Amino acid sequence: MSNKVKTGIFIAGFTAFTLAALYPVVVFPKLHPEVYKEIQKETRKDIKQEDIQPGNMKVWSDPFSRK
C-alpha cells in the first residue's frame, strides 16, 4: 500500500472513532431530551429550590414569559 492510502485510512479511522465517541455525549441527548428530563425530575424531586437559593435571591424564572 502506498503512503497516501495508509494516511487516508488513518484519517478515516480517527474521524470515525471521534464521531463514535461524541455520539453518546452530543447527539443522543439532542435527539432524546425526554430521557434526561425524567432523570432530572427524579433526582431533584426532594429539593426545594427556595431553601437552597443563596442570598435570599428570587428563584429563576423565564424572563420572556407573560406576567
TrEMBL record:
Q: Does the keyword Transmembrane apply?
A: yes
Region span, Disordered: 46-67
Pfam families per UniProt: MITRAC7_Phoenixin (PF15061)
Q: Note the InterPro entries from the entry.
A: MITRAC7/Phoenixin
Asked if the Swiss-Prot or TrEMBL record annotates the protein with the keyword Transmembrane helix, the reply is yes
Chain ranges passing through the membrane: 7-26
Sorted alphabetically, the keyword list is: Membrane, Transmembrane, Transmembrane helix
Write the protein's name.
Small integral membrane protein 20
